[in-house]
Amino acid sequence: MSTTESPDPANPTDPTDPAGVADAATADVLVVGGGPAGLSAAVALSRSLRRVIVVDAGHPRNAPADGAHNVLGQEGVPPLELLAAGRREAEGYGARFLDDRAVTARRADDGFQVTLATGGVVRARRLLLATGLADGLPDLPGVREHWGRSVLHCPYCHGWEVRGRRIAVLGTGPHATHQAQMFRQLSEDVTLLRHTMPAPDEDTLEQLSARGIAVVDGPVARLLDGEDGALRAVLLEDGTELPADAVVVGPRFVARAELYEQLGGSRTDHPLGSHIAVDAQGRTGIDGVWAAGNTADLAAMVTVASAAGLMAGAALNADLIAEETAAAVRAARAG
Hints:
alpha/beta, FAD/NAD(P)-binding domain, seven-stranded mixed β-sheet, five-stranded parallel β-sheet, 27% helix, elongated
């Protein structure tokens, strides 16, 4: 695997080039993030003979999950195995990977300059942000510890695994009633815990009742484990214990958009959180910058994120071709 050249350990700082820019790695496209979106883009671009560098910090969002679902032909594949296979494919076509974290980005010449946490620098003509999102989980003991296993949010990602079980939906907003109805498709034992959510209106209560979904008032104090460490119940602040095999939560999804903001962009509000707004091909409002995966689509599952990365990679290649064609025409006219 190729990496950026490191400075001489005996002389780590060149006084004439303190940022190491002279030794910066260069690329047609720098992909920030090595998840399904970033890897799919890297494969598409590398297959088009583009110089691609992928910077990845190695902390995939779905790492706690046992398997990735609705991945056609690879149902239930462990997330880390899927990413490792995608990385091998991209490397096979010539993409370079840097196991690092991108911390700053700025315009430089006719492209971008990105500084890494280890001090390295990457220059690129185009930038693809596939940095994913941060899950803002409810601040309750036990939620984060069981996140991705018995604390869930998506019926398509984990619903089959809890079918027929005792499911409690933690109400932190009006979206909880929708989640309760979705998980009711998978189990007859679904309880909506109002916790901090507004009181449902009469029509909503009628719908929940008609589907056999119990509604429990009162705030939740914590999740309780059994002797084997598995989730066994939800404890209300009044001391009531409600047996549960799974708890559904509604995180606030916040795109990791720090680099985009450094370049002058801003997050766009969304009912589920905030994201980077893009067009159908992943182009953002900043010239030369694309975004794909959960960075741009908060609800994107693995295959959706992968498809968005592929589309963004194709669009980036087309954009570079247009630039190169215009330059060739100018040169021909000048010659």
